[in-house]
Amino acid sequence: MDLRLLACTQIIEQGGFSPKEVVAARTMRGIAYRLKGDIDRANADFDGAVTDLDSIIRRNSLDAEAFSLRGVAHRGRGHFKQAIADYDEAIRLDPRDMETFNSRCWARALLGTDLDVARADCDTALRLSNNAPNHLDSRGLVGLKQGKFAEAWTDYDMALQAVPGTADFLYGRGIAALRLGRAEEGNTDIREALRLNSNIARIFADHGMTP
Fold it and tell me: CA separation (Å) from 154 to 81, 96, 173, 179?
């Protein structure tokens, strides 16, 4: 079990944490399982998180964080429209939550619709976060989906300048370079991304993107 799975499992099982901390750990563990390709365990965690968050929201319908977390769990389950609805409510309650803007951008990118709206959400997240690398990554995926390959390349490159050696950023930059006709450069990025994370091709294929 990798460190992220272990840390989340300890929070879930040991006790002494708030209900929201436990459900956040369950959601993050679901993401970790999905990235490893363990879909059954991922879905079990996402479903459990949604059930717990339903209860939290019934007790406090003004809890922006709970709506945002439930959006993440719905997104993990592939229920993108439900995720976006939860992000909408979270942003209504807390219009300066940069992570929820980024999450809504990401959900729309994965769904592959309203990509101009997705880009606007990413732009807002980037403005609020001063160009956080994971937000650049989200806008990079939007750029790939829109066919704006030069812009996507720039976003992934900026993310890599902030966090060198990140497989996701390298793979995205590699795809963008290939689409721009820069085969040697693109293939070099993709090979390095695969060396760093052998699952990265499957992850991007799940996002609807292949070299």
Answer: 29, 25, 8, 13
